[in-house]
């Protein structure tokens, strides 16, 4: 029996073996999704097309078609605003987080004293974000610190904008960069995982490639664009997808959906909002995947 299994496995091509191991790797997640998420997902889709009322006999579900979707998109005044704000924040923050993470990963990969401490500091927000600090961000202390920082940096941001505009930089680029300065706390706090992924990818690049480039007279700048950037381009793709999902996971839109369902107890409307939000996320992910898949370099 073992010999037969070895023959069957040995007859497979390398690509087939990789595909098989890939299926085995995602199988636990697939089983968990089917057992714990697929049924609630279908129930949510059903609720989004129904009117749900609680009575003495339990929950009464009445099919209403697309009424909840129409109400979310045309009647509810907060939904469209929160959806546009969430999408805008993602379009602004994702490039900044990915670029910042790659830049820091390259720096943290260099040899210097205190490198381990520096790596821990930049990963610390990821650990703290799931604990008490996450709840403190909405309190007066953290809010006051953020407000004082934004107020104190206003004049510096205006001076920076003036310098760049006088240097001939495009107004759109200046606005984007000044917005990045105002979002620096959010960018740093959401970059820990991405830095770790980039750092792991950079360390897998063969040092012989850099040695050969130095022998050819390449500068550090040229080595980055010709070696480091192409080699970590698959990880740029991964981090972009991860950052998009992470940015959509906790924002004003998710709070609106949660409040509609569990504060106002309008589960039908809440489910419809969630599915519209899910469709918007799916469209963005598909567009990003198409753009990146044509530019990612995979080493054979």
TrEMBL record:
Its main location: membrane. Keywords: Cell membrane, Membrane, Transmembrane, Transmembrane helix, Transport. The keyword Membrane applies. It holds the Pfam family BPD_transp_1. It is a multi-pass membrane protein. The keyword Transmembrane applies. Belongs to the binding-protein-dependent transport system permease family. This is Lactose ABC transporter permease.
